[in-house]
């Protein structure tokens, strides 16, 4: 399928660069050139597409799935978010761009969900220079693993780490929290370039779901995390929904 898509664009490019005002993702990859006028190879393009498909699809799907799980598990928090959305949207079936910027309780709910169950449980970085931690020097060239899930549940960083409390992200002292204490999208120069889009996507999906349905977990189903490159549910996430009046 990928080869077919690329060939379609190659044929299209024989008539010159795309004429549409806004280039799509493949347009940009296929027309991009470096300072010497050299473009990306098919392998380079495929690597870029694979990255966007993985980072923009699998991880976001994990975040949405676990957020729905938390909606079903914590009915009181679900009701709080529903009240906010009802007042904000006022029976409007569409979520506008302006709405996305004014959903503090939904945003806090999503962040707490990603703190409890990080969509990506860990990342790693290769050191370009020596790093000293607690008087132990790690030489350059080594790969250091960082457990995001463990960080989000470290009791020194997050008191009552095993308690679901969205208000953690509404507190006035949130600015005093260390910027690297919450890393669902990693951090630094290699952080997720699509994190703002991902958050908006999650907000839209959850807002539309909560606005129309009340979510419940299926009793007696076993909900268990399965850490991989992306955090999955070992036995799936089963829910039932009840249409709101």
TrEMBL record:
UniProt GO MF annotations: heme binding; iron ion binding; oxidoreductase activity, acting on paired donors, with incorporation or reduction of molecular oxygen, reduced flavin or flavoprotein as one donor, and incorporation of one atom of oxygen
InterPro entries in alphabetical order: Cyt_P450, Cyt_P450_E_grp-I, Cyt_P450_sf, Cytochrome_P450_Monoox
Pfam families per UniProt: p450
Enzyme class: oxidoreductase
Binding site for heme: 192
Superkingdom per UniProt: Eukaryota
Coiled coil feature spans: none
Cofactor dependency: heme
The family this protein is said to belong to: Belongs to the cytochrome P450 family.
Protein name: CYP4B1
The organism of origin for this protein: Mytilus edulis
Top-level taxonomy: Eukaryota, Metazoa, Spiralia, Lophotrochozoa, Mollusca
């Amino acid at each position: 399928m990928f080869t077919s898509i690329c060939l379609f664009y190659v044929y299209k490019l024989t008539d010159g660069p795309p004429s549409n005002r806004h280039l799509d993702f493949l347009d940009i990859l296929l027309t991009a050139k470096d300072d010497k006028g050299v473009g990306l190879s098919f392998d380079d393009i495929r690597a870029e597409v694979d990255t966007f498909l993985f980072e923009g699809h699998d991880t976001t799907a994990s975040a949405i799935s676990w957020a729905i799980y938390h909606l079903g598990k914590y009915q009181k928090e679900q009701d709080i978010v529903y009240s906010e959305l009802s007042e904000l949207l006022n029976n409007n079936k569409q979520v506008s761009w302006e709405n996305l910027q004014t959903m503090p309780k939904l945003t806090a709910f999503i962040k707490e969900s990603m703190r409890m169950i990080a969509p990506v449980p860990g990342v790693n970085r290769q050191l370009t220079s020596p790093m000293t931690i607690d008087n132990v020097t790690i030489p350059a060239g080594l790969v250091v693993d960082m457990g995001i899930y463990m960080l989000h549940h470290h009791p020194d960083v997050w008191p009552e780490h095993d308690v679901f409390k969205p208000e953690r992200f509404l507190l006035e002292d949130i600015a005093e929290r260390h910027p690297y204490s919450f890393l669902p999208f990693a951090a630094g120069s290699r952080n997720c370039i699509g994190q703002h889009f991902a958050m908006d996507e999650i907000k839209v999906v959850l807002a539309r779901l909560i606005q129309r349905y009340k979510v419940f977990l299926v009793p007696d189903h076993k909900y268990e995390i399965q850490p991989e490159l992306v955090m999955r549910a070992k036995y799936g996430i089963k829910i039932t929904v009840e249409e709101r009046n």
